[in-house]
Amino acid sequence: xxxxxxxxxxxxxxxxAQTAARMIEREPYYEPLGREIELFEAAYATQIPVLxxxxxxxxxxxxxxxxxxxxxxxxxxxxxxxxxxxxxxxxRYLITNNETVWVDGPLAHAVRCGGICYLDEIVEARKDTTxxxxxxxxxxxxxxxxxxxxxxxxxxxxxxxxSYNPGYQSxxxxxxxxxxxxxxxxxxxxxxxxxxxxxxxxxxxxxxAVADQLIRLAEMTRNLKGNGLDEGASTRLLVHAGKxxxxxxxxxxxxxxxxxxxxxxxxxMLRAVNELANSLF
Amino acid sequence: xxxxTRSSDAPAACASQGAKLTxxxxxxxxxxxxxxxxxxxxxxxxxxxKLASLGRDLQDFALHWTAVIARTSGELAYRFAALAPDVxxxxxxxAAEAWIIHAMDTFDREGLYRGSAELTNVDxxxxxxxxxxxxxxxxxxxxxxxxxxCGLAGxxxxxxxxxxxxxDTETLHLPARxxxxxxxxxxxxxxxxxxxxxxxxxRYGTFNVDPTQQLAKFADPARALTLYNYLETTRLDAxxxxxxxxxxxxxxxxxxxxxxxxxxxxxRDAAASAADSLALVAALYDKNFEPPRLxxxxxxxxDIAQAVRASRLAREKKELQTELAKLLPDEPTExxxxxxxxxxxxYSVAATGDDTAAGLELSLDGEPFTPPAHxxxxxxxxxxxxxxxxxxxxxxxxxxxxAQRKDGGDAAHSLQGPSPEEGxxxxxxxxxxxxxxxxxxxxxxxxxxxxxxxxxxxxxxxxYAVQVGQLRRTFEMLRGxxxxxxxxxxxxxxxxxxxxxxxxxxxxxxxxxEQLFQRRFKAERDIAVMFMVDMSGSTKGWIxxxxxxxLVMLCEALEVLGDRYAIYGFSGITRKRCEIYRVKRFGEPYxxxxxxxxxxxxxxxxxxxxxAIRHLSSLLNAVDARTKLLITxxxxxxxxxxxxxxxxxxxxxxRQALIEAHRGGIHPFCITIDREAREYLPRMYGAVNYTVIExxxxxxxxxxxxxxxxxx
Lengths: 281, 712
Description:
Chain A is α/β, with parallel strands linked by helices. Chain A has 13 helices and nine strands.
């Protein structure tokens, strides 16, 4: 295994190959909810970083893929977690054959190749980690890489974007003002019933009548938000249920698996959501 | 711990011995049990004569239950004894027992009239409980049903227990159990059908007409109302079929083929309303149409529903007008203040989409805007009652009215004060003779102990100064040993293991980990303890002093230890006035207020322990801790005034409450000074979970010591 390591590192150092892999070739399916495409393009043109806010499963990540395709830029997505260090974003030295090799992290890579770096669920990352993006996120647009002794200047094609869900914001998971005030915020929410129906049909190919029922069910679960559910069923869950139904799974079973059990572990709530699904299908 | 079975042995044991009792013997036994309700004109003799024909085991069964019921109500027991020979002749004992328990539960809940009605109604009960093993109880499904109707949307609805199923448009009342069907699924479906139909009555305007007034013209308004109920059920079935096809399919099975007559066809129309049902009543009434009784049909109480609806409309109209006034932009007030400035209405509402309640768009001066969520809820609730938002509802309250209403509203609210039920918790109580719970039997309130002079605390601390010092030292040692935590990013020493691993990582080209240190760490004692202090009248005098001193010493020790603890006193008189006295809550600091409350602990009334344990267990269960302890400080056995809590009943109820607590992960323990405690405490707490302190004077020193032993 150690033998192949230099090869791997060489591959890592080959930005062109990596960049090609990050390009989105086919147009992702996306239905605009409002003027978010316009807004995003304007922010991109004026080099202002973008913050996507919205509940889970409402299309934030899909929107990023769509915009990357539309702008023809590579997309580097980093899913943030609380062990994410600054080095994970910027890059680090690795040792091979008694020799140190510098490997760029996704953020540095995106800056070098003029791509879009998307930090998903930024609040999950520790606060000291998020600070490294500050010089990139204002008009300096630089990324200092102290360990490597290099200062990267972002080209005009580079864009920093991040997402967070204000819904489950605890005091521990709040975005620092100094971070959030560097971004243009685009707010996402669940699409209107008509649009959601269009999305579900396009994504899954189920009958419009079934899509209608799925949307009714989503409304019902969203009524339960705050009464024992933290979130109602997202568009993503409806798409999952729709896909199962399209595969021939009976609707009730599909809703149990894709919606009820995905939403909650509480036995009463589970039963109530199942009953709601049963009352529709 | 197993559940108590003692009482069940009693009749069985008798059954095995002896021959049939004679009428005279029976009369004697009945006289004894029914004494308070017998008189010269009403003797036990006819009862005994009929019972004499039964076999000995059935005689014993009847006598046993007569005595049990007599402890609840003599009158009910008399009626049971009168019915018993007939019923026991044809019903097997377990079914008869269920019937008796059901009647007693009804008596507890609704009094003698309903209770004895249930007793007399034995056939209906047997019919309904054919599948009693498959019965579904209200308490098992009420939460699911609440969530279900909440998900179905419309106005938020409460779910409550009642003798019959009906709705007042804000609360769905459902019966205690469903057992008409052969399987649990089917019985649950019945509940679900009832609940959704009641929900639909509120949601789709069954009471948006006034049935009482409209149906008064018929010779038999009750029959007309039954017809109306049936027609509404038909109309709502059609709506459910459109909106909730899955449920409609399930309900079809419950309809058992009973299809509505031809005239009802128009009720299936999407535009049909309650008015159409009313109009149809006349046609079917004259034809003497006998509506089938559908199993998922509730009853209608139009008067109750109308009253609730009228008061809600009045309230919501005011609220809406006030809210709309708040939403008005500030600047145009001057032009408005001019006389004759009442031009076009400022607010208007338009329905969006095809369903009236689906979308309502509020506009101000023709400009649509999105109102805050609670205003939106108000609009929908009003539209649900009236089908639209009348223009008069959209007139913003002017400032004078607004201020007036605010004041008036607040004053009215404060005048009401807390209703007698407010802040009252209800708990079941175990009746060992019935071997069932008495539902919501005890009413319990939490009150604060009146703080007293803290001199008592100072005196105690001075008196036990040496012992307090010792206690503190002992408890300090308990505080948890220090531990070394490895692989830390910072610490007071190098963690050699991780350094070696790091070195190899480094050589193989992996990342150098940052966790190379170790540091000391104090292990957390994750303990929450609840002290339950007997404040009954019998503690008066030096026992009370000893209790208070014990608490002082205990607090001193626990403050050192850092365990979370709470102290509550308990007392009360009768089941309707059980009281819990707050001395120190979890999370409350041991400060002057708490000290003064400890000093203020005074003997009160009686010792109804079961309910106190149930309440304090629920408080303790709300605390997140690995180990939970419920320690009772007591001077005697459970006891209460005027009902039969004293003796075996109280002990069995307490035991049951402790079993419940144990099931919830709580370790109960009892410290008592009652020397006779060894006779009953093992039954209640188990053989090892109590300690008897012979010398009251030693209590203050022992309690902390017992606690130390318990938690190490």
